[in-house]
Amino acid sequence: MPQILIKLLAHLQADDLGMPELAALVAKDAGMTGKILAVATSSAYHRNSRQPNLEQAMVALGTDMIKTLVISDSVFQTFNSFPNSGATDLRAFWKNSLMAAVLAREVARRIDYAQPEEAYLAGLLHNVGRLALLATAPKEYAFNFTALDDEDLCAVEQRTLQITHAEAGAWLIERWQLDSFLADSVLYHHEPSERLEAAHPLIRIVRVAHVLSSHANDEALVDEARGLCGLDPDAPDELLGLAARQVEKAAIHLGIDLAGADDLPVPAAFAPPPPVDPVQQRLSEEVRNLVLVSEVGQMFTRQQGNGGESGLLEAMTRSARILFDFENAVVLLENPTGQALVGAPTVNQQRIAEFTIPLAKGGAVAQAALDRKLGFIRRDGRPLGLAEEQLLRMLGTESLVCLPLVAGARCLGVLVGGVAGWQLPACQKRERFLQAFGAQAAGALETALSERGHARRQLAHVAEEYREASRRVVHEVNNPLSIIKNYLSVLDSKLERQEPVSAELSILNEEIDRVGQLVGSLTQIQPAIATANIEGGVPAADVAKVVDDVLRLFRTTNFVPSNVEIVVSMPDDAGRIEGDPDILKQILVNLVKNAIEALSASGGRIEIANRGHVNRERRLYLELVVSDTGPGLSRDVLANLFSAVKSTKEGPHHGLGLSIVHSLVKKLNGHIACRSGTTGTSFEILLPAHAGAGAPAASPVRALGSV
């Protein structure tokens, strides 16, 4: 809308427009200044040879003429630039518009309406919706643009375009956001007179102007319209005569050629005949909707992969605005507890994130979610809930469409679209299309929410695994640290006696490396596999060597009490197993350490034995047994032996040892069992024999005596 016209209307509504204000307003618009000077220097007003300046020109024209020029020229310049207007003869259109404008202003003056210039503008714009329809649908509307302006034309427009020129004109004027009944006067100028008897004066004035400008020969219609404004019976003829002279004069001043406008044909409105088969028409519409919904669903899927949940919500609201002509749209999602709807923020609607609607408190939006049914909300005089009032203001509309997003038996939320009041019936006719759109949107949204939940669960699972791995590493690190501590004590004694310490230093070095490996395993998905013992790509561990390494760790320290004897029963050719020797070493250290702790009070015997090969389910295993002569385990402890349980030992990581042993045996693809009674406890371990392993030979029992 031209700024000069906006400011002019603001001054008129404030009732403070005198010649100084009018002059200041015109002076800011170079085009309008030129128009005023051109009219003032025309033969109708110019009385001397001297060229007038702007102030003199405006004084010569008078306030009424200046207002007429500003309003008329602004409207003509704006709407003559509409698409397709240059290819259409607009002479009859503008003559009818000028006639209605002049008539509206004269009627306004006769009934003492406070804003006659507003009435002039309303009359000038009362059919501007026809230009809007021509611009939007030139092929479909070209013929009916010149048709007689009556109720038949409105019916044809509704049937062919799903909107009348009165609705289109009102929608266009509403975009200007005027504090006026101007849009209403355009919307209702085809309403029957009996419906407008109690309407605002501007609405009645434009109705009278329309009837006199387009249907002056229909005496009954003119008489009904005249009664709306209380005009005398002779008033219509007087008004028409006066308007004809003023229209001709205004056209000259505005530079509009209206010659021959009355000779242009004015046919009756025409619409193609409806399809013979309404079922076929409905089927075509359903197929079209299915195709649209399918395309929308594919677009949602693509958007979900590219932009995630926020991108999907943005695509949903944008698609709804395009498909259903929503002025704006927001999404309210059900919160995790299912007690409320909470706004989902998008690029253009960040404030909505703080908006909440309790489902238990009712309201039309909440009810749509609870019932899983479409809801339509309009301002019709009845009180609305606070949430609905807020949404209407937030979206800047007068009506709401509430589309529940239902996936299966669950309602994920509601998409709320804002529309003008006159658009609501059209939305109600598209109920099935709306529901299909909602189903596609809900399906995509459910997938996005499910993926978000899955990602959160994965993160929690990884975090828990890392915490558990950390606890296990801390527990395992205690073993080599205990050995290192004991060997440092031995080292100190030997150094005092000046004895060789190379063996002890070698063990300390090995245990320090083992601590480093255990800590480093936190950053590895799987433990590193030693390559020194790999043959043909399969890791192998020499059982006898690993057992000797374990015994060497305990041999020269004070970790083994004097009342505990460790015995090893190992064949000369003890054989090899498939697996990392460090893992086997870790298993045996844990079991021997536990056995020593079980015997520390009463003393006893610990045996590490190789019982040879075992065939289990057609696979060859090597059986290792670690046993002690301790008091045995209770039934409850035995039942939960390989689980991480609360231990009677002190420290935050006790109670993990045997669960770690179990997991390490499983890592070697082996099996472990425990026998326990009053005569002691034994752990029997089956580990996969290395390929090519032969049967073990008998050998004497070797004993590690008391230290």
Automatic annotation (TrEMBL):
Enzymatic class: transferase
Keyword Phosphoprotein attributed: yes
Every HDOD domain range: 1-192
Alphabetical list of Pfam families matching this protein: GAF, HATPase_c, HDOD, HisKA
Residue ranges annotated for the Histidine kinase domain, each copy included: 472-691
Keywords assigned: Phosphoprotein
Cross-referenced InterPro entries: GAF, GAF-like_dom_sf, HATPase_C_sf, HATPase_dom, HDOD, His_kinase_dom, HisK_dim/P_dom, HisK_dim/P_sf
SUPFAM superfamilies listed in its UniProt record: ATPase domain of HSP90 chaperone/DNA topoisomerase II/histidine kinase (SSF55874), GAF domain-like (SSF55781), HD-domain/PDEase-like (SSF109604), Homodimeric domain of signal transducing histidine kinase (SSF47384)
Reactions accelerated catalytically: ATP + protein L-histidine = ADP + protein N-phospho-L-histidine
EC number: 2.7.13.3
PROSITE patterns with a match to the protein in the record: HDOD, HIS_KIN
UniProt-recorded name of the protein: histidine kinase
Natural source organism: Telluria antibiotica
